[in-house]
Fold this sequence. Notes:
This protein is α/β, with parallel strands linked by helices and 306 residues long.
Amino acid sequence: MRIFKLNRICLYLLVLCVPMVLCQNGRASEYVRVTDQAGRTVRVPANPKRVVSLAPSITEIVFAVDRGDRLVGATEFSDYPEAATRLPSVGTYVFLDLEKIVSLNPDLCIAIKDGNPGAIVSRIEAIGIPVFAVNPRDLNSVLESIEAIGRILNAEDAARARLDDMNYRLQRIENMVSGTSTRPSVFFQIGVAPIVTAGADTFIHELIVRAGGKNVAGGLTGYPHFSVEEVLARMPEIMIITSMARQKTFERVVDQWRQWSDLPAVKHDRIYLVDSDVFDRPSPRLVDGLEQLVRLIHPELFPEAP
């Protein structure tokens, strides 16, 4: 109980100091009012210098628009690019470390609407630290998030260059896939025990569809659990397995599926292992994941060079 009281006293003192420190350093002398992707009108620095990212995907976007040097902290699992691993941790995007955030003296935090708890965001703002929220729900809104973050970090040119590249690649994939005559069925396994897959309202489903496949869990929403029998009954032609577990776990899962020799994905040796972060983070790397999926689902579109 005494430790808890001391921590609250420390936090209270930090809260009192923040406005004074910001004023002394001159970072917050000029503000602008903007509407974030959560529909809130927020007052943010015109030129943020000390930024804390509240989700790994936001960390990736900040680096993608060439503002990684502005980051002074990020949530756990912010591991891309490699430079992000050296940033001080402010907890997970669900369990944020408020005292750590305050100690980093940020002039802006960037949050994710459907990831960071609203109560914690409100507490950060009550301390006097502005919070700008993005709301990526699909690929198009990921592009909007990149544009918005580029704008508030005065990185419009870098953001536009990134968006132009992503849009070019997306259009190229659409043109390639539009000429295919088949849509193989795909089971995308994101959990090992229990077996978890991705339903219709997920990034993974959108990537499968854009890549010219048919998600066998497309009639469901969220991240439903499947039994082995249910997977076998769906007879997927392709199985893609991803998890945060180690490589040996991946290999065991593949071996377990291969015992079902009548499964089309087994019969035609179309079980693949992929990096989970490329497929479920609303960041620029979703296009990398899409390109990878096209190669796995429609290898005929990529004939071997002579």
